[in-house]
From TrEMBL:
Biological role: Involved in chlorophyll biosynthesis; introduces a magnesium ion into protoporphyrin IX to yield Mg-protoporphyrin IX.
CDD domains on file: AAA
Molecular function as annotated in GO: ATP binding
Name of protein: Magnesium chelatase
All residue ranges annotated as the AAA+ ATPase domain in the record: 212-395
SMART domains xref list: AAA
InterPro entries linked: AAA+_ATPase, CHLI-like, Mg_chelat-rel, Mg_chelat-rel_C, Mg_chelatse_chII-like_cat_dom, P-loop_NTPase, Ribosomal_Su5_D2-typ_SF, Ribsml_uS5_D2-typ_fold_subgr
Xref: Pfam families: ChlI (PF13541), Mg_chelatase (PF01078), Mg_chelatase_C (PF13335)
SUPFAM superfamilies in the record: P-loop containing nucleoside triphosphate hydrolases, Ribosomal protein S5 domain 2-like
Highest taxon of the lineage: Bacteria
Length: 508
């Protein structure tokens, strides 16, 4: 007999429909899996045999051949346990093959037959819906995640016996319904700007970054509040739209960070990798590529604390994603792309000792040491950082003062209003979400300058040595400042403020 069921495999964050064909024939008892399975798929033979036995089903004492199609696509992970087990039951006529219908099966089996959660369920469910699969059977802990896809029947089962009951007794396992998507809480968004004393210039830069999606770096001595400011950026960013939340949730599903959590990621991601992180950890990689930190920060914030402590070659990995909003990871037999539209926020000391330019403590670094310190940040990388802000230490009277600054909510309201103006402008350009996404053709259309503004910008290019890319960044920031002020056109005051954030392109 021949049993056929559907499953799926992941390529990056995209899902590919996989056929699981099971043939039982004469020969020595064995289960043979073909179709480029990895070690985890090969080991499913033992898990499936034990699960069938402990669930009360028989394992045919014959040769069982399992073929995973398409044969040239690498299959990985334990999610094929359940479809292989169901395929064996169908091929051995313990379950009628006609009952399988258009179900798609996913799940890891324990030896006692219980189902364990797997990764990548959301993108697989979305792909199943597009390919006319009517129902998907997943472990109970993955059911709420799969149910985010509308128009697809989702069945969450605790064990293999429940799966068989579902097939033989329709209605015994009710489909999962979500009146309201369950929220997966992964980030702490309670940090408030009111905790920050002083630093009006840095707070203004945060507001501009939130409104326009601009990259930002804080430079200042230890204890000046750089990290404190950066960690409060997610709290003033506009909330994710439903479409953006689905994108983020798919990335976290593929990365295996939704296991046992389920639901929709509603908060803007905030990722803060350690400065010892490798290039693959930052951009993604592995034998079977998985999302890195920049993709986990998609639609959110990537914070590089003490940026100059990162290896230069690791930082250079950021250049292409910052420009394109995606990253491509290539291997010998595979090339996958991951989304990476994030806001980069970085902090660093101005020199190795940390006190260059400080009003309270003298710097002990030589010019050559400072030059070597800043050499880790290449010119092309700094060009891509729109807002470059000096943060000075607070005066004693500012530290002891009990008054607090403006809270996050009013700042967030202004940032949302600024983005709304930009989105209205981009209503015929769905790919544009904020001003930072604009390309050259958009700048020509929406960032026209009057003579005074143009003369001001040309003077800054000569004096600061701004590149063409850095000049484009100044125009984008000018457009955001104009949006925050409610102005239709860019004026000299907007350009002047934007230029003021380009004064640390290279510190010596």
């Amino acid at each position: 007999m021949l049993g056929r069921v559907w499953s799926a495999s992941l390529v990056g964050i995209e899902a590919v429909k996989v056929g699981v064909e099971v043939d039982i024939s004469g020969g020595l008892p064995a289960i043979v899996v073909v179709g480029l399975p990895d070690t985890a798929v090969q080991e499913s033979r033992e898990r499936v045999k034990a699960a069938l036995k402990h669930t009360g089903f028989g394992v045919p004492m014959r040769r069982i051949a399992v073929n995973l199609t398409p044969a040239d696509l690498r299959k990985e992970g334990p999610s094929f346990d359940l479809p292989i087990a169901v395929g064996i039951l169908a091929a051995s006529e313990q379950v009628s093959p006609e009952l399988l219908g258009d179900y798609l099966f996913l799940g890891e089996l324990s030896l006692d037959g219980s189902l364990r959660p797997v990764t990548g369920v959301l993108p697989i469910a979305a792909a199943a819906k597009q390919q006319d699969i009517t129902a998907i059977v997943v472990p109970e802990e993955n059911a709420k995640e799969a149910a985010l896809v509308e128009g697809l029947e989702v069945y969450g089962c605790q064990n293999l016996a429940e799966v068989v009951d579902l097939l033989e007794k329709p209605g015994s396992v009710p489909p999962v319904r979500l009146d309201e998507p369950v929220e997966a809480k992964l980030f702490d968004s309670k940090l408030d700007l009111k905790d920050v004393k002083g630093q009006a210039h840095a707070r203004r830069a945060l507001e501009i970054a939130a409104a326009g999606g601009h990259n930002l770096i804080f430079v200042g001595p230890p204890g000046s509040g750089k990290t404190m400011l950066a960690r409060r950026l997610p709290g003033i960013l506009p909330p994710l739209t439903f479409a953006e939340a689905l994108e983020v949730t798919q990335v976290y599903s593929v990365a295996g960070l939704l296991k046992g959590r389920g639901g929709l990621v509603r908060d803007r991601p905030f990722r803060s990798p350690h400065h010892s992180a490798s290039g693959p950890a930052l951009v993604g990689g592995g034998t079977y590529p998985r999302p890195g930190e920049i993709s986990l920060a998609h639609r959110g914030v990537l914070f590089l604390d003490e940026m100059t402590e990162f290896k230069r070659d690791v930082l250079e990995y950021l250049r292409q994603p910052l420009e394109d909003g995606s990253v491509t990871v290539s291997r010998t037999k595979l090339s996958v792309s991951f989304p990476a539209q994030f806001t980069l926020v970085a902090s660093t000391n101005p020199c190795p000792c940390g006190y260059f330019g400080d009003a309270f403590q003298a710097c002990t670094c030589s010019p050559s040491k400072r030059e070597q310190y800043w050499a880790k940040l290449s010119g092309p990388l700094m060009d891509r950082i729109d807002l470059q802000v000096m943060v000075n230490r607070l005066k004693p009277e500012e530290i002891t003062r009990q008054t607090t600054g403006e809270g996050s909510e009013p700042v967030r309201a202004r940032a949302i209003a600024g983005r709304d103006r930009a989105r209205h402008r981009f209503r015929d350009e769905p790919a544009l979400q904020c001003n930072a996404d604009m390309r050259s053709e958009h700048l020509r259309r929406w960032c026209e300058l009057d003579d005074s503004s143009r003369n001001l910008l040309e003077g800054a290019i000569r004096k600061l040595g701004l590149s063409a890319r850095a000049t484009d960044r100044v125009l984008k920031v000018s457009r955001t400042i104009a949006d925050l002020n409610g102005d239709e056109n860019i004026r000299p005051m907007h350009v002047a403020e934007a230029i003021g954030y380009r004064t640390i392109d290279r510190m010596q």
